[in-house]
Write a structure and sequence with these properties.
This protein is an alpha+beta fold and 364 residues long. Helix content is 55%, strand content 15%. The protein has helices at residues 2-10, 20-24, 82-91, 96-103, 161-167, 173-176, 179-214, 218-250, 258-324, 339-360; strands at 41-47, 52-57, 72-78, 110-114, 117-128, 133-143, 147-152.
Length: 364
Amino acid sequence: MKKKNIINSIFSPIDFLLGTHKIVGVNPTIPPVRQAEIESAITVFEYNSEWVKEIELKNVEDCFPYKDATSVTWINVAGLKKDEVEKLCNHFEIHPLLIEDILSIGQRSKMDDLNGLLFCLLNMLYFNDSQNQMESEQLSIVLGKNFVLSFQEDSRRDVFESLRGKLRLTNSKVRQNNADFLFYSLIDLVVDHYFIVMEKLGNKIETVEELIVLYPNTRSLAKINNLRKEMIVLKRNVAPVRELVSGILRSESDLIENRTEKYFKDVYDHIVQATDLSDNYRDMMMNLHDLYINNVNLKMNEVMKVMAVVTCLLAPATVIGGIFGMNFERIPLLHNKWGFYISVALMLLIPVMMIRMFRKRGWF
C-alpha cells in the first residue's frame, strides 16, 4: 500500500488533463496570437577579454548604442512585448520575416541567414517538478558582427545562469572569444538541458513500468498515454535542432570563425545523441504499451483459469445432484438411510481427487 501511494504521488492529476490538440501543435495557416507579457526584462552584457559590464535596462531605446560597439554585446529580452521587439529589431536591421518568427508561437526550430545576420529559433525545455510534466519555451537568437540578441518568452526562468557566471570570470573562454562563441554557448546550453529533461522523463518511464507490473489497470494506461504525448513533444522539439546546427555549419557565414566551427560540430554530436535517446524513449513507450496488454491478458488468463478450475470441481457435484434429482421411482440408494451421506461424500471426494490430479500434472 505504501508503494502504491508513492507511485500515485509521482503523477499529479494534471497529467490526465493534457490535451492532444495542445500536444500536436497549432495550425500554421491561422495567425497565432501572442498575449502581451505583463513583465519584461532587458539585460545587457558588454565585455571583452579585460572587462565586463552587466546592465539592466528599462527602456528598449537604451540598447540602440550597442549596435556599433567594438566590444561584444549580449542583449537578452525576457518577456516579449510586440512594440519593444519591433523597435529593437528594426534598429538592428533584422528582417521583418525574422521579427514575425520571434513574435510567433508554436514555431518549428530553424535557422536563417538574412541581411548578414544569423537567426536561430529553438525551444528551451524544462521539467516542472511540482506538476511532474515537461514544459517548453520558445527562444530566438540573432547573431550580428559584435552582438547577440536573444528573445525568450518567460522573464522568470532560463538555462543561461551558468553562462552569466562565465561572463563574470576574466579567464573564461567566452570572454576570450568573439560574438560567435557566445552564440554557440547559448545553443549549447539549450541542447545540454535537453538531457536533464530526458533524464527526468526516463525516471517517469521507469516508474510507469513498475506501476504496470503491479497494477495493470486503466489508470496505468492513462499514464502511458500521457507519457506518449510527452514523447511526441520531446521529439518535435529535439529533432529539428539537428537540422538547425547542421544549417549553421553549412552556412559559410562570415560571422562564424573557423576556430568556432569545431564547437558547433560538438553541439551537433550532442543533438544527434539527444535525438537517438528520444527515439529510444519512444520505443520504450511502445514496449510499455505491449507490457500493459500482456499483463492485462495474463491477469485475465489467471481469472479464467481459476473459473475453469472451480467449474471443473463443481461438475461432479452437479452430475451427482442431477442423477439423484431425477423423477424415477427406483434409484439406487434412494431409500437407503446412508444414501444422502454417500452422495455428499462422493461430491467432496471426487473434487479432492481432481485437485490432486491437476497439481500432479502442473496445471496450477
